[in-house]
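At this stage, I wrote out one protein's amino acid sequence and its backbone structure tokens, and that material follows here:
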Amino acid sequence: MNIDVRARIWRAIRASSPGWTMGDLMRIAEATADEVSDYCRFLESAGFIKSHGLGAWRVTQAARSTLAAPSPDGQERISLDLVLDTASNELRLLRESTPGAWARVQKTLTRPDQQLLRGARTDTACDRMWAGVRELRKFTRKQLGQATGCAHGAVVDYIRLLCLAGLAIEAGQASQEKVYELKQDPGPERPVIRETIRRKRRKAK
């Protein structure tokens, strides 16, 4: 299926209220019945949509937290309209699996002719941990937990994700605790680790 068609269908799904139909998607996304049916079949099997009455559908929590169009081949491409859409409530940076994606997104977000509106929101535990990592630069799990007030389990999980994403590395030991070091610093806005990275982490266990 054409990537642009898939992206149009996904945007239509995310913009629709619970109870949308295949016909609604065909009209909104300007897609054929086969294109909508095939893509929705994949989304249902992957847990992104579920039935909402006879012939009607709704998104799941997984879909609400996934901005880029899910794909059967696991590839998600970042386009300008997707990056700008992330600024509607908060500025979220998505990572592709291909090299150089992070730099392309940053370049898009910092174009002087683009006015990105950032809505107010409450800091989350991930915000505090990312701020703590940037301030400490080198840290243990205990140190990051004490600096941010976050639960030990959350700290362990977050550090593991940062390492998988290539943003932090192991840098020795101190008092029988692993020491971690910030390897890449993309800025004060916390990076959002893609769900595919989370899935890789779970498979590796």
Remarks:
- The domain at 125-204 is CATH 1.10.10.10 (Arc Repressor Mutant, subunit A).
- The first helix runs from residue 3 to 15.
